[in-house]
Write a structure and sequence with these properties.
Layout lengths: L15 H6 L18 H14 L2 E3 L18 H23 L1 H7 L3 E4 L4 E2 L5 E2 L1 E4 L3 E4 L12 H23 L24 H6 L11 H13 L3 H9 L3 H22 L3 H12 L12
Parallel strand pairs: 1-2, 2-6
Antiparallel strand pairs: 3-4, 5-6
Helix pairs in contact: 2-3, 3-4, 3-10, 5-7
Length: 292
């Protein structure tokens, strides 16, 4: 279904007199104030998101919350329940364990919007998440969640890498990271041309992912989100593929990032990664279908 409304005059005037005498009804045919009755999931979200973390979750499709330039579909109810429980367990509770609830309530986006489908862009890329001004994160492709195969790599690719990435944007926009970070690979950033880089080319140039080469802000966020969602072995094996100059650049950026998070925010990114990875090991034990 293409979510783009086109309003057009359907009635043809048969005469100038009849057209001029017709009066338009000022009442909209769309019920703008219609609200759905509260259900068990709404009550669960209020307790576990609003009351605990001051975050609202929207899972029913709302036209005004969606990008009208894309063909998007609503999140399925059971997938929305599962993602809400996974997001709390793998992301919110992990940060709260390391940093405390007040940190989350203060700096986390105030709205999480769930969308059923991916968002395909004209440059050939696929958006796996969208953030707006530090206040809202849209998680896409919710309907692809497979209850029978809760693969951490899939979950991180589509959902939790995005959450860590966008949260890092909020932090550095609140308190900026050291300018020295921008001097590590100053001529390597490619702007929108990042879509043309392979993983190997990005690593050789000193970027942990192709998207990190877009600009220094995206670079910083990709470094943290990749680091905390993967094991040390994965990180070492990935960086080992880079050229010597690429290895040195990535190591330097990681040191600056670690220092920035520790000195500015009091966050130990290694402790955060340990907590995230520990939780990833237990996702099969979660009951994602009930609201207990």
């Amino acid at each position: 279904m293409k979510l783009k409304y086109i309003f057009m005059a359907a009635a043809m005037c048969l005469g100038m007199t009849s057209c001029s005498e017709d009066e338009l009804n000022p009442e909209s045919i769309f019920e703008s104030n219609e609200t759905m009755p509260e259900n068990d999931f709404d009550r669960w979200l209020k307790t576990n998101y609003v009351d605990e973390y001051n975050i609202q979750v929207k899972y029913r499709f709302e036209f005004n919350e969606s990008d009208k330039g894309y063909n998007l579909v609503p999140a399925e109810y059971d997938k929305a329940v599962a993602i809400a429980k996974l997001t709390k367990y793998l992301w919110l509770d992990a940060y709260a364990k390391v940093m405390g609830n007040t940190f989350i309530r203060t700096y986390c986006p105030k709205l999480i919007h769930l969308v059923g489908s991916p968002q395909y862009n004209t440059d050939g890329s696929v958006s796996i998440g969208v953030a707006e001004g530090g206040m809202k994160i849209s998680l896409l492709n919710i309907n692809s969640l497979d209850f029978e195969n809760l693969d951490p790599d899939f979950l991180n690719y589509w959902y939790f890498h995005t959450m860590h990435h966008e949260f890092t944007h909020i932090l550095h926009q609140t308190k900026d990271y050291p300018t020295i970070y921008k001097e590590v690979t100053p001529t390597g950033y490619t702007s929108q041309s990042w879509v043309n880089l392979s993983n190997q080319q990005a690593l050789d140039r000193g970027f942990i992912t192709p998207y990190a080469s877009m600009n220094t802000d995206e670079d910083l966020c990709e470094m943290l989100s990749t680091y905390v969602t993967h094991t040390q072995k994965y990180w070492d094996d990935t960086v080992a593929k880079a050229s010597d100059s690429g290895k040195a650049a990535i190591a330097s950026k990681l040191d600056i990032l670690r220092g920035y998070m520790e000195e500015t925010w009091g966050m130990d990114i290694d402790a955060l990664r340990e907590e995230v990875l520990e939780r990833q090991e237990h996702i099969d034990e979660l009951d994602l279908k009930s609201l207990n």
